[in-house]
Design a protein that fits this description.
- This protein is mostly helical and 123 residues long.
- 51% of the residues lie in helices and 11% in strands.
- A hairpin with a 5-residue loop joins strand 1 and strand 2.
- The protein is globular and about 45 Å long.
Length: 123
Amino acid sequence: MSEEKKVTEKRLCISMVDKYGNYRKYVSGNTVEELVDGLIVTNDASFVDWFIKQGYDYTLTPKQLNALSNIIENSKKIQYVCDFVNYVEGANIEKLQDAVIATNNAPYIYTFARDIQGANIEK
């Protein structure tokens, strides 16, 4: 007589559902590292923004940090940029600050200067 054991796999995942209940995008991984690598592949700033706010006990590698930073920078969404700087240890404030200044968008620049400690928009 043999016993059958069920193994349940716990996967980390992020999904986006449209207003009709259909999955728009889905990222998953068995580890936080795999999840981060999946985020990089999706190139979706909204996924990255959600992920960084979850407080996973994980240190990004320099390569991952740079890739996620580029995704956020290219999103052109001030809230994502501010969240990234505030939530991600090691975020390059100067690089993101330069991207904000390069937009020449006064409200965007003002928001960054107001919300980010250590911002120097007087360049």
